[in-house]
């Protein structure tokens, strides 16, 4: 399925990168931009050097040139979440945790195992509580494994501070990769005297490394962590929708969101997470509002002011007979979910960067941000047209080309 812009021919070519920031700073990126003092580093008792270990890796997934990196970034937490008229709770192990102002729709970063428990306790879904089971949707495309309850992901030494991407991955493929990483870790530890080299991102785009003891059964896949939490009496329905970092969900991903979110009772918590709880998480929170029909202003639909930045989207909506209501609804939903990132304002901020700087990375990110916004508007038009489960979103898009 081609992007909306390509399949319809009316919109400019669009296409990647998610932005991480408080919405007041529209042009900031979601790359690692630390601002806190580094934590203490565990001594390195093994004689082999860091480079020798990394280049000597022999796993199918944990292979030569890749690092295992701790996947929790406290310095990435948006501190303004605890300010203002609706301060959000601070949950240990669940950075950027927040709730929409008027709906049980939540977002956060990749949580630790304890962070999952803390979030479920907060949502009245703990072992001794009686609230409805939250539907938790992990939107990571990158495989994540847990070591003693702490998440780890893969990073390439040649592209530090950038995720190892595999666009188009299915849920099954992501989970197979996690299982393979788990086996690779045990095999590497067996060759290294029971120890594993693990890296940590520090403030100022610095990195440290540490050697950790690997005990039997100390490594779990993401699904295994949720299964363990459920076995302890926590109530949660776990789903995955793999989306490439800073890109739009593909049409089949929107179909998955439709299936997972449609028909839920109004009081059921919908929880989204990605790596840092920013772009993909915010996209999921917006989509949840669209599926629930909550992306409308009270009373008459607001008028949409013409903006040449989004002229192609206006033209396409008129071409397919959808009017401006789907666009107004998406703008409304984005505004309610912008505590960490405003998906529309980020486009405007990047446009300014493109005008000021010829860096092709800015243009690439702008393409992806625009495509994400286009897809959300088209998805809302699709949902408002009728029965979304009868026709897949991708087929509907083709019918409107």
Notes on the protein architecture:
The protein has 401 residues and is of the alpha/beta class. It folds into two domains: 127 residues, no CATH class; 181 residues, no CATH class. It contains twelve helices and eleven strands. A five-stranded mixed β-sheet has the order 2-3-11-4-10, with helices on one face. It has a four-stranded antiparallel β-sheet with strand order 1-6-5-9. Strands 7-8 form a two-stranded antiparallel sheet. The longest helix has 26 residues.
Question: What is the topology?
Answer:
Blueprint: H1 4-8, H2 50-55, E1 66-70, E2 98-99, E3 105-108, H3 113-122, E4 135-140, E5 145-147, E6 150-156, H4 171-191, E7 195-202, E8 206-213, E9 219-221, H5 222-231, E10 237-243, H6 251-261, E11 270-273, H7 279-291, H8 311-319, H9 325-336, H10 345-356, H11 360-385, H12 393-399
Parallel strand pairs: 3-11, 4-10, 4-11
Antiparallel strand pairs: 1-6, 2-3, 5-6, 5-9, 7-8
Helix pairs in contact: 6-7, 7-9, 7-11, 9-11, 10-11
Mean pLDDT across all residues, rounded? 86
Adjacency order of strands in the biggest sheet? 2-3-11-4-10
Helix content: 25-40%
Distance between the termini: 12 Å
How many β-strand stretches?
11
How many independent structural domains?
2
Overall geometry comes to globular
The H-and-E topology, N to C, reads as HHEEEHEEEHEEEHEHEHHHHHH
Major beta sheet, specifics? 5 strands, mixed
Unreliable spans are: 1-47
Beta-strand residue fraction: 5-15%
> What is the SS-derived class?
alpha/beta
């Amino acid at each position: 399925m081609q992007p909306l812009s390509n399949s319809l021919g009316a919109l400019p070519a669009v296409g990647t990168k998610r932005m991480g920031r408080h919405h007041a700073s529209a042009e900031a990126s979601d790359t690692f931009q630390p601002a806190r003092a580094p934590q203490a580093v565990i001594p390195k008792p093994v004689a082999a050097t860091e480079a020798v270990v990394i280049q000597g890796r022999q796993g199918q997934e944990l292979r030569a040139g890749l690092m295992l990196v701790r996947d929790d970034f406290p310095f990435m937490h948006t501190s303004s979440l605890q300010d203002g008229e609706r301060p959000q709770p601070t949950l240990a192990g669940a950075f950027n945790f927040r709730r929409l102002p008027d709906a049980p729709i939540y977002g956060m970063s990749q949580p630790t195992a304890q962070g999952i428990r803390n979030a479920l306790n907060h949502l009245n879904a703990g072992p001794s509580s009686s609230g409805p089971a939250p539907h938790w949707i992990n939107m990571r495309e990158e495989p994540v494994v847990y070591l003693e309850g702490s998440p780890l992901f893969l990073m390439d030494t040649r592209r530090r501070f950038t995720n190892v991407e595999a666009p188009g991955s299915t849920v099954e493929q992501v989970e197979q990769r996690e299982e393979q990483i788990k086996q690779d870790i045990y095999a590497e530890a067996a060759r290294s005297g029971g120890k594993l080299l693990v890296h940590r991102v520090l403030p100022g785009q610095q990195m440290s490394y540490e050697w950790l003891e690997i005990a039997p059964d100390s490594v779990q896949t993401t699904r295994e962590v949720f299964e363990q939490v459920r076995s302890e009496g926590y109530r949660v329905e776990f789903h995955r929708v793999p989306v490439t970092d800073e890109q739009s969900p593909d049409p089949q991903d929107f179909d998955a969101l439709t299936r997972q979110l449609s028909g839920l009772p109004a009081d059921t918590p919908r929880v989204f997470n990605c790596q840092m709880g920013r772009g993909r998480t915010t996209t999921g929170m917006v989509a949840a509002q669209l599926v629930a029909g909550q992306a409308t202003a009270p009373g008459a639909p607001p008028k949409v002011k013409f903006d040449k930045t989004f002229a192609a989207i206006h033209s396409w909506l008129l071409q397919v007979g959808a009017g401006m209501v789907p666009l107004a609804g998406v703008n409304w939903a984005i505004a309610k979910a912008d505590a960490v990132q405003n998906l529309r304002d980020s486009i405007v901020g990047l446009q300014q960067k493109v005008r000021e700087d010829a860096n092709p990375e800015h243009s690439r990110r702008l393409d992806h941000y625009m495509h994400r916004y286009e897809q959300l508007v088209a998805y809302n038009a699709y949902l408002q047209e009728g029965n979304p489960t009868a026709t897949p979103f991708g087929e509907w898009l083709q019918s409107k080309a």
